[in-house]
Design a protein that fits this description.
Blueprint (H helix, E strand, L loop, with lengths): L5 H30 L6 E8 L6 H10 L5 E9 L2 E3 H18 L3 E5 L2 E3 L1 H6 L4 E4 L4 E3 L11 H6 L24 H25 L4 H7 L4 E3 H6 L5 E2 L2 H11 L8 E3 L8 H5 L13 H7 L5 H12 L9 E3 L6
């Protein structure tokens, strides 16, 4: 048998190290979770952070732990300006589902920002606790477009589109928007806005007229939100934990707060191309896009355009606080 060359031995060694590191990482994550769960009575603590574009990380943790017998209650810490309509509604419905199926109390809390889609998701909770100076609300829908026609003219660029129908290229940035397109988008925005407004009225047990008075996209302080019954109480994260513990009939000292471990960014995260990305501010998606498969002049140019011209969230209806950009 021919002996292995140095190159083959080196490659084999790297593969063994890789497999060992992956196995260790999986074991360590499992061990950390198990070591942090020593109490019979636990309050599951989850977070909704950043722009909501899919919410998969949050939903995975909610589904994994909510039905655990040791979990007696759930507290959700929200710090979000909102995000895409569908994912924000998905968070709302899944929190509502968890509440109905487990019969466990759920309290949402924010000491920073609970706006638009972030507030929509929080409406599913039994109670909403906010710091008096937190920013709450922004009930509304926003959809932005850019007309870069003159920029293309300056750059001597001509764009053409072949479509199957007159609305297929609606919202294109290389031409002005037609009146019928504007009416179509407005109809869609109004429909989604009515969904948002109706959800607030139902969840907060308020007349639709009372909600409409403040559902014009404005943000308000936590103190104001409590005053008009858009939230239940002023307080901090610790206040929310104590509130949900009382709701679950847990005495102080008889429970512990359990926070699922957040995985740190590692070399392997950077190398995982093509996988499902988490929400923008909760992942390494942005880093991947710059150092991963998009390391081309075209990829860098696209990222720069998204950043400089602020086009990342354009052409889609959003439960996003106006004026928010990464």
């Amino acid at each position: 048998m021919k002996p292995w060359s140095f190159r083959k031995k080196f490659v084999a060694g790297l593969l063994i190290i890789f497999v060992a590191l992956v196995a260790y990482r999986s074991y360590k994550t499992y061990q950390d979770d198990e070591e942090s769960r020593l109490s019979r009575n636990e309050i599951l603590s989850l977070e909704i952070n950043g722009v909501i574009m899919n919410g998969k990380k949050f939903l995975h943790a909610l589904k994994k732990y909510a039905k655990d017998d040791t979990v007696k209650a759930i507290v959700i810490d929200v710090n979000s300006p909102g995000g895409a309509v569908g994912p924000s509604q998905e968070l709302y419905y899944e929190i509502l589902r968890a509440k109905k199926e487990t019969k466990k109390p759920i309290v949402c809390v924010s000491t920073g920002l609970m706006a638009s889609g972030g507030y929509y998701a929080a409406l599913a909770c039994d109670k909403i606790v906010v710091a008096p100076g937190a920013l709450i609300g922004s009930i509304g829908v926003i959809m932005e477009f850019a007309n870069l026609e003159r920029l293309y003219d300056w750059a001597k660029i001509q764009r053409y589109t072949i479509t199957s129908g007159k609305f297929k290229d609606s919202g294109s940035e290389y031409r002005p928007m037609r009146d019928d397109e504007r009416a179509l988008f407005q109809e869609m925005i109004t429909e989604v806005y009515d969904q948002f407004r109706g959800t607030v009225a139902k969840a907060r047990n308020l007349p639709l007229e009372a909600v409409t008075q403040y559902a014009d996209g404005r943000v308000m302080t936590g103190a104001k939100a409590v005053e008009i019954k858009f939230a239940d109480a002023e307080g901090t994260y610790e206040d929310a934990v104590k509130m949900v513990a009382r709701m679950a009939n847990l005495k102080e000292g008889d429970y512990k707060v359990f926070k699922p471990k957040r995985e740190k960014i590692s070399f392997w995260d950077i190398m995982e191309f093509g996988g499902e990305e988490e929400d923008d501010l909760n992942s390494v998606a942005g880093l991947k896009s710059l150092i991963g498969s998009k390391v081309t002049s075209e990829g860098v140019a696209k990222e720069l355009v998204k950043t400089v011209l602020k086009t990342k969230y354009m052409n889609q209806p959003l439960f996003l606080m106006p004026g928010y950009w990464e």
